[in-house]
Each structure stands twice: as C-alpha cells, then as structure tokens.
Amino acid sequence: MSQNAVAAARGAEAAPEKVPVGPSQRRRWWILGVISVAQLMGVLDGTIVSIALPSAQHELGFSDAERQWVVTGYALAFGSLLLLGGRIADLVGRKVTFLVGLAGFAAASMVAGAAHSFLMLVTARVIQGMFAALLAPSTLSLLTTTFTDQRERAKAFTIANSVALAGGAVGLVLGGALTQYLDWRWNMYVNPTLAVVAFIGGAALLQRTPRDTSAKLDVLGTLLVSAGLFCLVFGFSNAGTHGWGSVATWGMLAAGAVLVALFLWWQSKAAYPLLPLRVLLDRNRGASFAALFVSGAGLFGVFLFLTFYLQQSHGYSALQTGFAFLPMFAAMTLSSAVANNVLVARIGPKLVVPLGMALASVGLVWMTTLDLHSGYVGQILPQLVIFGMGLGVIIAPAMTLATSGVAASDAGAASAAVNTMQQIGGSISIALLNTMAAGAITAYLSTRDSKDPGVLAQANLEGYTTAYAWGAAIFLIGLVVTALLYRRGAPQQDENAASTDHM
C-alpha cells in the first residue's frame, strides 16, 4: 500500500548530503517523474487489490480462510525480501535493479489478471511481491543519488510523498470503478500500463551505476529471515483451520521464532549483515519500528475486513466502497502533517505516538458496535475518521524517527526495515485476524441454521466484530510499548549523522 512509498520518502532524509552523481542529474526532474510513476504503480496495486478481492473470490470460488493469502502472499514475499533487495541493488547497480523490478512486477500482474484458479492468483501475487522487493530499495537509492542539493532533495521527496498519499486515494476509487464497470481483472492490468511508461523513461534517462565490489550477499541471513517470517505467518494462518493445539500451528510458530532469533544472532556476527543491529538498538528507532509493525497490522488487517463488511453486509458496490474509505485517508493525511511537523517537534514522540495508538484503538472499539443496519454518515464515517487520525499520528513520526540519525552506510537498511516492519505486521495481522474471525463465525453457526441467509449475514458480522476487537487490542499493546520505549522530549536531530559512518 501507500506506506511503501512514504517509507522511501522518509528514509531519504537519512541519506548522505553529498553523493557522487552521473550525467543523470541534469535530467533529475524527468527522472523524478519516472520514479513517481513507478511508486504510483506500487501504491495503486496495494489499494485496488483489496477493493477487487470480494469479486475475485466470488469468481474463482476460494474460501474466506484462503482469501487472506491473496494479500498475505504478496506482503510476505515483499517484506521478507526487502533487505535482500537493497543488497542486490548494491551488487548489480540501481538502474538494472529498478528496470528488472519493473518488468517482473508488470509480468506477474498480467499473470494475476489472467488467473483461472486461486493457486494461480496467489502464485502471481507472491512473484509480484518478490519483484517489488527489488523495486522499492532501488527507487530510494535513485532518489537519494539523483538529488544532491538539500533544498531540491526536500522538494523531490515532498513530491514523492504526495504521489503516495494521492495514489492511495486514487486507487480506492479507480479499483472500485474498474471492478464495477469492467472486471476485477482490470485492476491487475493497470500495473503493466504504468510499468511500460516507467521502464521506457528509466531506460532512456537513468545512468548505469558502478557495482560496489565490496558488497557481499548475506546468504545465510537471507535464508534465516525469509524462512522465519514465512513460518510465523503460516503458523498464524494454520490456527484458523487446524486449531492452536495442532503441530501445524504451534510447530510453525515455534520454528519461526527460533529462525528469527537465529537471524538476529547472525546479524551480530555477519561481515555484511542484511540488517545491522545498531540500526535497531537506538531507543527511538526501536520504538518507531515497533510502531510501524503495529500500524501495518492495523492498516492491512482492518482495511480488509472493513472492505468485506461494506460490500457483503451492506451491499456496497466496489466503487461505493472506494469512496467510503476516502475520509479515512484524508484524516490520515491531515493528522500526519500535524503530528510530524507540529506535535513531535514540540513535545516529542513519547506522548504523540501513544496518542495515535489510543485513537486507533478507540476507533476500532467503536467499530464493534456496527451492525447490519448501521448508517454510513452517522455510524460508520466517525469510526473511519478516528481510526485514520490515529494511524496518521502513528505513521508519520515513526517513519521519520526510524530513519533519522543513522550512519550513511545504514540508511538503506533502515529504510528497507521500515517497509519490512509494516509488511510483516500486515501479514501476521491478516493471518491472525482472519483466524479469529473464522473462529467466531464457526462458533456462531454451531447452534444455528447455517443455511438461513440472515443467520449467515449475522455470522459474518460476528467475524468482523471479532477482528475489530483484536485489532484494538494490538493497538493497546503498541501504546504500552511505545510509551515505554520512546525518549522524553523533542528529538534532537543531528544534521550530519547520515553523512558520517559512525561504525
């Protein structure tokens, strides 16, 4: 979703002030246009897929338990391979990585649009995520090396951030319109159209960068973190079908925890770690990564259930659903600006980010009161706005602090970690909330007539309500963690921190 592009914009603030550039700097504003198109493609994909998912489920006939993998498969591949993608950009060059990422993402999107089965759709989405993990780090690197003047760089990243926010809103409406008036498959075919434009522009404007011959690939670290994250998400997903007492559930969760722990241990020993631990050990950065994990869990997980609530419980069309979410994104945009530019600068994140957690939790608790007859303006809109305000107050400060003050050699790893935390948070949340919702539906139907349409509608509502309640609990945990970890007072920014390698 839009968080990927925002992370790139924020991460660039930690980039070195003076980076050697090639002739491409003379065409830097054209290059920004090319990069913005690529970012728009990724942002649109994140939102239009969620809007189109109910229609895809109806046509391809997959179950409620399976549908999470259309989103989770992409997010898991993207999140678990982002750190690797950044290292590959160092090894083979930014231009090549950018173009390969574009081409692969577009090809996988075409396959997803032509999918004739659930397995084919999920496979294509996983491949999309793999190529997105190449595209995101190379996009950040291209921005930071193309714009070396501090004022021009700030303007470029403001434009990139605006594209991300606008793309999220456009994706909602565009996805709804394509699904309603054409077919859900057209949501997938938007990506190749944008990719062709970006690919032609990138091939013509970008300069080949020399390989960093000192960079090495952390193969063991890549295997450990990718396998560990997969086991965690797969374990949570299995709980819905096998139960928490099944080996397929707790065994996968235990294996995932062990593998992630081994990954963290290995990062302290590896000569070329994917994620240097010094990036995580600063209190403000550690708290920010935790906040981004929670916000990703809320945005990805709850957004999916709200989409199904509006379309299945209230009969909204895909286009109506897109418009229904616009106030939430508007609230996110406004609260992000206030939180990042006013509140954090004056009183610091220790009060501000937990406040966002509290707002998001209140919005979700309020959503548990929604029923089959709730009106939009009086009973759905207020919750969406409060939830959006909470997310905005969390995300913008957390992104800034997660990438501020790192050494130049760690800027890419910190930015990739931002995306990783959000994507994995979303993946685990979708799996966990889907499991809890499925359990609530099963329990409700166990003593009722499952063939009665009214009973089925109420059962689905029970599932959505359970998901909102668990989402609220996640944000409350985030409130406690961030309140404890963040330092008191406004953050002291070291303007030269990124241009000096402290390690």
Beta fraction of the residues? under 5%
CATH class (first level) name of the largest domain: Mainly Alpha
Straight-line distance between termini? 33 Å
The geometry reads as: globular
**Helix fraction?**
over 70%
Tally the helices: what do you get? 16
Counted up, domains total 3
- Please state the oligomeric state of the protein chains shown: single chain
Largest sheet: none
- The CATH architecture term of the largest domain is Up-down Bundle
Would you summarize the structure shown here?
The chain has 503 residues and is mainly alpha-helical. The chain has helices at residues 3-11, 28-60, 64-92, 94-113, 118-146, 150-181, 186-205, 219-242, 247-267, 278-281, 283-313, 318-347, 349-367, 376-403, 411-445, 453-485.
Note down, in words, how this protein is organized:
- The relative contact order is 0.14.
- The chain is globular and about 65 Å long.
- It has 503 residues and is mainly α.
- The model is unreliable at 1-22 and 494-503 (pLDDT under 50).
- It folds into three domains: 1-214, Growth Hormone, Chain: A, CATH 1.20.1250.20; 218-271; 279-503, Up-down Bundle (Growth Hormone, Chain: A).
- The chain has helices spanning 3-11, 28-60, 64-92, 94-113, 118-146, 150-181, 186-205, 219-242, 247-267, 278-281, 283-313, 318-347, 349-367, 376-403, 411-445, 453-485.
- The protein contains 16 helices and no strands.
- α13 (349-367) packs antiparallel against α14 (376-403).
